[in-house]
Amino acid sequence: MDDEGSKGVDFITFKVDVPVVVWLATDKRWGSPPKWASDAEEWAEQPDYLVQTNEGDTDIFVLRNKEFPAGDISLAGNNDAPANLAPMYWVFLTRGSGAAAVEATDKLTATWGKLKSAR
Fold first, then answer.
1. Measured between alpha carbons, how far is 38 from 43 in angstroms, rounded to an integer?
2. What is the pTM of this model?
3. Dihedral Cα 21, 2, 59, 105, nearest 10 deg
4. For an engineered disulfide with 12, which of 34, 75, 93, 113 has Cβ 3.0 to 4.6 Å away?
5. CA–CA distance, 83 with 72 (Å, rounded to integer)
6. 3-state class (DSSP) for residue 75
């Protein structure tokens, strides 16, 4: 939560040695994701895949993904427009151009295990 007001194009940066699919799990309680994580920027919402935590006050996280070639990747802040109230996001990576199959009813740990094993 220390980063809830984060803004800017280089909030998270990392380098990958192989092509990856970057998955964002965005907290749907806070409305729309930032513009950089939208369909217009080639981030595809995956409505069949949801991550639900076991914390009572945390609802469901919607998954969206985008393919990236090997190299440097930068993700912007979670409080960039049109987002409001800082919609938290988590980042997951899978290898290659195929998306891992996950169940919509899985908890975070099970979903993460499935995404990780698909690489």
1. 5
2. 0.68
3. 30
4. 75
5. 25
6. strand
What is the spatial distance between Cα 76 and Cα 8, in angstroms, rounded to a whole number?
5
**């990236």: which residue's tokens?**
68
**pLDDT tens across 13-39, in order?**
899 888 899 998 877 776 677 778 888
Q: How far, in Å, CA of 97 to CA of 86, rounded?
A: 30
3-state helix, strand and coil shares in percent for the chain, rounded to the nearest 5: 15, 35, 45
| pLDDT digits 0-9 by tens, 57-80 | 666 778 889 999 999 999 887 766
Q: Which residue has the tokens 């749907």?
A: 28
Q: Which amino acid, residue 104?
A: A
What does the DSSP assignment read for 17-62?
Answer: SS-EEEEEEEEGGG-SPPGGGSGGGTPEEEEEEEEE-S-TT--EEE
Question: Cα angle vertex 76, ends 73, 78, to 5°?
Answer: 135
